[in-house]
Amino acid sequence: MKRINFSGDVLPHLIAVAVFLVVTVVFFKPAFFDNKVLSQRDIEEWEGSSKALRDFRDRTGEEGLWAPSMFSGMPAYLVNLEWSNQPVTALKRILTLGLKHPFANIFAAFISYYILLLAFRIKPYLAIAGAVAFGLSSYLIIGISAGHNARIGSIAFMPLVMAGIHLVFSGRRLTGFAVTALGMALHLRENHMQITYYLMIIVAAYGIVMLVHHVREKTVAEFAKSVGLLVPAVLIGAATFSGPFWAITEYSKYSMRGPSELTSGTSGLSKSYAFEFSNAITEPMTLLIPNYYGGSSMNFLVQDENSKVYQALVQSGNQQTANQLVSYTSAYWGPQRLSAPSYAGAIVCFLFAMGIAFAPKRLVWWLVPVSVLSIALSWGDHFATLNYFLFDYLPGYNKFRSVTFALIIIIFCMPLLGLSGLQNILTQHAGPALWKRLAWPAGIVLGICFILAITGGFGSFLRPGEE
Fold first, then answer.
1. Which of 102, 150, 286, 296 has its CA 20 to 30 A from that of 436?
2. Angle 395-396-399 (CA atoms, 0-180°, nearest 5)?
3. Nearest-angstrom CA–CA distance, 349 and 282
4. Three-state secondary structure call for residue 465
5. Which parts of the chain sit beneath pLDDT 70?
6. In whole angstroms, how far apart are CA 157 and each of 93, 195, 199, 282, 396?
7. Residue 327: its pLDDT value, please?
8. Taking a C-beta distance cutoff of 8 angstroms, is the pair 420, 366 a contact?
């Protein structure tokens, strides 16, 4: 039995947890120290719609099954119903050290991604950096601010599921079995099927790559053993979600996601509704440059008193007209009605490009194609050839909208591939061959910067009215 070395086997992980705790508390300091409450519009609307159910629970101690205040009434299990999954809830509370909701989801994202990177044998000090980069990507922070707590909670435990799967395929089967079951239970408890769908895409791509590897190595039996172990692990985790899943499945056929009463043979959302929020072709550039499309649609030019727009409205002499024009001064100039940049980080983008050259090839063949697919899915009806086909023929895909959420796939992939490549570089001796291999990733980033410069992409960094 291996003897545990505290400084090597325990201390790095204690430091990691301490770093994640400090970052979470400091980042959300007003909530932890100033007794402030985060204003989440979607949650405020939910509180109103679920009040009757919560009052009934407080008054009787029983669960209400009908929400009278939603539309003309609807089943309560899609509004506010406490299921008998309290052990899973308790596990999440323990894992997140009892931190305040919803900020605990960011801490959970740190922990889960840290475990993922460790499963891929990334050194702890690099894994800490990768976990922070994932958890503080603007995608997660903006989701929290909007009140999409279920979506961000589901994302937080995606890495844990993937870590367990990889541990099984890496030969650490007992540990991988436990982590997979735990990750699935925690992930599904958050109840966001669209994020689960994207997780399935990541896992399916991983499975294909691993199958090809085992076929080449003539070890298909080992692949079958790993899959055979993962199936019951997933089923155990999914069993904790069986009640909500059954209810959702039962109700969906009566909702707008079910068969149409007017058109025979159709099911799911309409294309116009499903693809209402679709990224422009170049809009995923916000992964590298957050203000490439002007920033958030809620960022108005009149908020800057030095902008020419603000000065023109003030000097117009017509206060009523000026007030009416305020809503038309959004700095965001893309095609979407509501949008916010999904910034992954310039350093993370550079590491991702570097990882293509230096990371293990199996990682490259897994993470790069799904990252490209992620961007293509986020284009929605701006790439109708692909996305309309998937909408019509990919099982279950026509149940979801806001396809820009698909960018979570590439945000998931970038730190993992980048840090795998960086670790390979740090373990090699510097020399001409190393610098030669570093040249083309650097060239990609410099090339993108050059294109942005000549097309005016960097104009978004200028103050409004000074482009």
1. 286
2. 150
3. 15
4. coil
5. 1-2, 42, 44-47, 252-268, 429-467
6. 13, 10, 10, 29, 22
7. 74
8. no
